[in-house]
What does this fold into?
Amino acid sequence: MAAAAAAAAAAVGGQQPSQPELPASGLALDKAATAAHLKAALSRPDNRAGAEELQALLERVLSAERPLAAAAGGEDAAAAAGGGGGPGAAEEEALEWCKCLLAGGGGYDEFCAAVRAYDPAALCGLVWTANFVAYRCRTCGISPCMSLCAECFHQGDHTGHDFNMFRSQAGGACDCGDSNVMRESGFCKRHQIKSSSNIPCVPKDLLMMSEFVLPRFIFCLIQYLREGYNEPAADGPSEKDLNKVLQLLEPQISFLEDLTKMGGAMRSVLTQVLTNQQNYKDLTSGLGENACVKKSHEKYLIALKSSGLTYPEDKLVYGVQEPSAGTSSLAVQGFVGATGTLGQVDSSDEDDQDGSQGLGKRKRVKLSSGTKDQSIMDVLKHKSFLEELLFWTIKYEFPQKMVTFLLNMLPDQEYKVAFTKTFVQHYAFIMKTLKKSHESDTMSNRIVHISVQLFSNEELARQVTEECQLLDIMVTVLLYMMESCLIKSELQDEENSLHVVVNCGEALLKNNTYWPLVSDFINILSHQSVAKRFLEDHGLLVTWMNFVSFFQGMNLNKRELNEHVEFESQTYYAAFAAELEACAQPMWGLLSHCKVRETQEYTRNVVRYCLEALQDWFDAINFVDEPAPNQVTFHLPLHRYYAMFLSKAVKCQELDLDSVLPDQEMLMKLMIHPLQIQASLAEIHSNMWVRNGLQIKGQAMTYVQSHFCNSMIDPDIYLLQVCASRLDPDYFISSVFERFKVVDLLTMASQHQNTVLDAEHERSMLEGALTFLVILLSLRLHLGMSDDEILRAEMVAQLCMNDRTHSSLLDLIPENPNPKSGIIPGSYSFESVLSAVADFKAPVFEPGGSMQQGMYTPKAEVWDQEFDPVMVILRTVYRRDVQSAMDRYTAFLKQSGKFPGNPWPPYKKRTSLHPSYKGLMRLLHCKTLHIVLFTLLYKILMDHQNLSEHVLCMVLYLIELGLENSAEEESDEEASVGGPERCHDSWFPGSNLVSNMRHFINYVRVRVPETAPEVKRDSPASTSSDNLGSFQNSGTAQVFSLVAERRKKFQEIINRSSSEANQVVRPKTSSKWSAPGSAPQLTTAILEIKESILSLLIKLHHKLSGKQNSYYPPWLDDIEILIQPEIPKYSHGDGITAVERILLKAASQSRMNKRIIEEICRKVTPPVPPKKVTAAEKKTLDKEERRQKARERQQKLLAEFASRQKSFMETAMDVDSPENDIPMEITTAEPQVSEAVYDCVICGQSGPSSEDRPTGLVVLLQASSVLGQCRDNVEPKKLPITEEEQIYPWDTCAAVHDVRLSLLQRYFKDSSCLLAVSIGWEGGVYVQTCGHTLHIDCHKSYMESLRNDQVLQGFSVDKGEFTCPLCRQFANSVLPCYPGSNVENNPWQRPSNKSIQDLIKEVEELQGRPGAFPVSISSETNLSKEMESVMKDIKNTTQKKYRDYSKTPGSPDNDFLFMYSVARTNLELELIHRGGNLCSGGASTAGKRSCLNQLFHVLALHMRLYSIDSEYNPWRKLTQLEEMNPQLGYEEQQPEVPILYHDVTSLLLIQILMMPQPLRKDHFTCIVKVLFTLLYTQALAELSVKCSEEDRSAWKHAGALKKSTCDAEKSYEVLLSFVISELSKGKLYHEEGTQECAMVNPIAWSPESMEKYLQDFCLPFLRITSLLQHHLFGEDLPSCQEEEEFSVLASCLGLLPTFYQTEHPFISASCLDWPVPAFDIITQWCFEIKSFTERHAEQGKALLIQESKWKLPHLLQLPENYNTIFQYYHRKTCSVCTKVPKDPAVCLVCGTFVCLKGLCCKQQSYCECVLHSQNCGAGTGIFLLINASVIIIIRGHRFCLWGSVYLDAHGEEDRDLRRGKPLYICKERYKVLEQQWISHTFDHINKRWGPHYNGL
It folds into this structure.
């Protein structure tokens, strides 16, 4: 850092001559004394001398001369400035001086405290930067930008309010206490009332020094800033240099910031200093003789000039400049000085890329008054420190520290006004800097951070608008900004267009650089007083329309006709965003102030200038009447302004619509472009634009998307409705069909030629045209619906498409002008409408399924009466949503029994039209539409191609609409109108649909290709007057041509001189309609039709129902129907019901119609002609047929596969039948031994597993520490949410076992210790399988294929991971199946009658036989290789620290211990999955196949490689008496572990795994019986230690008396007394101080409680043993009550003698079966302990107590409300790096706080979360991400986002806390999470895994 060491030197013996020097002694004194002296001097009445002295001192201390010369001097700065005190010493020295002087000799901290006491501020004003967590309460806010800091929010009362928490994007400030921005009811306790009355007056001398010192200090800062700023070189400003200067100034600015925090008293001093103009002039003018000051002033002037600003000399008052020749209008670019001449494009200031656009001259933009605007852009005059500080703040691109300082001052009212004015004065300069900035994003945020604080305040905004021309400045600056990126518009007339539009590819638009300015503009327009000024100022409105016209027609799309576009530009989103933000948002802002009648004038102004701008636009693009083909722009902001102000005028201001409408010609022009957009939408959906790439679809979707629709498609459709209601209906209808290019399709002929449309697009374009007409005629959004009705309609439409969550509904419903405040304008609020139309479906949980959220679904009555397909079509972004809505509607009707078939979209009565728009309905009553409807009905009836049910549906809908809206009285004999109408007469007599329906049309002349079938027929001799009237444009005059008709109308309307009229019908377009030469010749044919619309409808009814004469007029039976037609508002049904409804309406409206319908029905209807199949159609039919067949084949294959899978599932997943213990076996009928048979899921072959070709089970091996998390107390652990709460892990199962092992290893022989316990509580290996088997060689080739397949999702093949080929479950190894017999028919199971003594000998012999295994290890078979490799896999699954517990690393005892512990881990986990006991019985409750049997084989094979020395084999100690050698215990260095300290379950596993497999049942029982005797003795020993001395002696005597009875060995009292007497020989019970009694609760031991105690001690062993027996021998587990679990398991294990009677209470001792006399063996066991306790009595006792009753493992208990977690953890510092982590997370297993992705806590390339997941969960970690409320799972090298367990009031997650609503725990979800953790099923249930590369 460049340093300023000189100030120190200056302070000692200054360098400025001509200053009265302080006496040297004065300097030698310390600073405090000097300060005190000066303060005293200044307090005197005549303080001139003191003041001068102080000035001199300050000049010296704060000299800015050398330090920054060094800083500016470049690289060597630090060296130059070094010397005394090192870098930064001088600044520190200067700051120290300042602090001392301010305090006037006292201590600085005391001074601060003193000043704070006088703080009158009633505002909070806390300033924060990006990412700060703040709150917004809409209930309390007056301005939508209101925000509160967390502290003020929690101290205020906001219960039941609509608030949310948010992460600040740009930074902000707390508004608590500011009644301009929020209601006082929401203030917090601190800021509620603090009137200035009770704050004492500030004593004068307290801040006296500050007033002298601070001006110099701030001037010094400004000098630094001037010095440090070097005009950036050509390559743009080097940010490095600027940052260097800023770093240097860090302490100074921080010092100022601290001053602002001292409260109101200090702030007002600062305000005085900053705004005092005299001070500024004296210090900075650069006129004095001080060279340093002069130089700095020069630098300042250079900086001004280089910014393109002039510094007017003092005689020029700000803003009034002599108008010079060049200032009458704005130049395109920034000016350099005020001399910019007009034409030039001057790029010296803006480094724009415009030159490269090569677009010739640009249109200049006239502004309302030149001089004013000129000065807005270019003149800056600084008159105070504040102004220059802001200037440098902008120059340095808004450094955060400066911004914070300037904002911290805002609570001072005087400052606030001054600062706001200064900000406005610099506004243009801000824009220029922003445009050039490289970091425009950061800068934008900082600008808005400031402006939002200033402009949200209406009072302030109004003041600045009046005094500083705020509106002029803003509009001018915006206009100026956009002018830098204009290009020529290519719309319509490419060559001669004069219109310019913004170029959406420019950075300015692409990066939203304009955002801060627009956002400020919208903000000030939200204030009524400001908006009114805007709407009254005609000049401003003209300028603004100019601005809007830059966006009119931007981002023009041209349809690619030949090849696909090479490069798809993505600029379209920039265009939509620009129109929304720069045009639509200000428009909504203005509209919100035009709500009442008194504001009519404003609307007239806007509409007037809007129309002028539109007229200019039409002229500029040379628009006459035909839009250019194949072009579309979605951006017509001028049209939309016009439309929305019209709508508002009629709806709210009671303006007469016609008074604001232009003439017919203008209306015709206005309608063209919006109509073009509607037609293009249909083209895009018909895939006619596919060569333009995906982006064009993106535009079509964005146009209707919820955030854009009410500023885009809604105004467009409204404008078209207005035009339609005022223009000639025939003209309008024909325009529509012409725009949609389907004119040629509307012919009676069966074949036609369409010159503008390919055949495959015809159908969808026709559907598009009709759908558009339906929407146009049915939509009432702006034509009379109230706001409540609109909201309801929008909501119903969204809910009908799909069930929605609350937040997505809020998002999907277009917000009216106001930003989302839960209240949408109108009397209703969002919530009440929602509860009226929808039911809440609470979130459901499918186990293993996806997490669902709370959804809203439409109520039945909504489907029944409100479902509106028209609204749905208008609002769907994806076409599939329309289908989805129809499917849901169909399902509802079926379910409620309202309609069984396939319903059509229901017909819904509309709300009545506002009188101003009544003309719209004339569209339904014009002959052109009737001809179209007639033709289409006829074509549908005749089965012409390219018509669909959808077309028919829309046709009927239009007819029904027409009948609904017919003129009230019907004149049956309507006179035909002469003149231009003549050509229709042959079709229909009048224009009323009701009468035209019955009009018969006999013959029609059509133009058809010569090949058409019609030509062959003889035409009838007489062609009646109806010979006119197909829609083909032939050259002949008699045929009615829709196009010609439209032109004629157009000319009539415009009515110009003939020469001009000819010019109107441009010859250019006629070529479109002439058929190309290649087409067959057209010829005229005359068709006999003889139908009316009514007769066509009746025939259609027959056709749809498939029956002749199916229509019977209902009124023949019940005449009442006609008098009061019960026509519901809403009708369900299909085409048939629709036709019936229409006929009924037609009959009820006219007697003639009724009569004609009856007549038609009397005639027998002719059969419908058979469909002729042309060659082309045949081809498509064949194609269809082939497709159909392929589909059927596919179905068949799938079905076959499914049935195979099903039958497989039945065999493999059968939970209840115990036979299936080896997967996939096929049980044969013969009773003799059958080999197990396996199916390979890869090659599909079945067969036994052999040594050469072994089969294996697909397994997933994972390390698990779940067992280690069991705890012994019931009280659940809570997640800590305060500093006091901490979690200590020493009561977990893992910790207890660790302590025990290390205690044993301290005193006993290592190898013996490793046999006395189990490990694997932490990092144990859990093996699970999906139950599918495969050949091991098949598996290897499968792995190869996976390795070569590059598209792997989320698992790593190199680590051996794969998914099961059949069920896709995740796996990582294959467990070989041991060749051998079925478990069930096992000859070993037959019980033998050998005595226990014989069995004991057999067991011992079998264990002694080394490797007695059918496969000798020496011959390496495939099977043994596989067994070894899977053993390696098992070992590598867990980390080394969880395998090696021996003191001698790598000792074989380690492996031995590890292997039997794997078996233990799997048994214990299965027990936990069953809920910790075996009461439920049955097979494995996991429902998954267990692989323990195969696992045992693998383990046993490897265990038998390590034979235990026979004399060390614990089996002997258990079953034989040895002669006791009292010396023995002392000689050895470390004795063996006494047998009573052994863990019995471990012994069981060792004994069983040491036996040759398969094991015989009676051997198993024998081992269990022997071990039970040891277990029982341990229970007694522990009991004896736990009870008190008195109890012990009592029992000892009681038992001794019974010793001689016959079954003494089976009585616990006798045994207990014997154990006590044996153990009391040692020192075990001796040193029982009082502390013992405290440890053991003094229970009164009754026989029952003792019995229960003994049973509880033995139960865990019995459970594990029973499970083991179940897996080894396939025996079922009986189910039982909890009380009888012990006896049931005991008898199941064969411990209970069969003759045992159950009458009297059960006694556990009766299970004992002593292999040798009980008392002898107990004596032997106790002797070992006695010899140990003689030396270590304490430890001896501790080891006797074994904790066996563990509770089930649980995750930490979480608090109800998420906010409690969030508030504590999001600011908590990490214990490792002591920083607040960017992404804090907390482990839900143990509560550890970690940094996610934090590089600060990285260790050997592992980030903290990954590291913790290895230490805490052996590779599995469950973390709650504090800032996102989501849970992330780490499993090994992969991770996935699990979802959230906290939901809001509407049952929704809030990932990343984006919505910030209060969240509450969802207990069900948390249970699911815990369940997946305990059952180790994360890998199977969660699908989206990805690698984390140790970076989490």
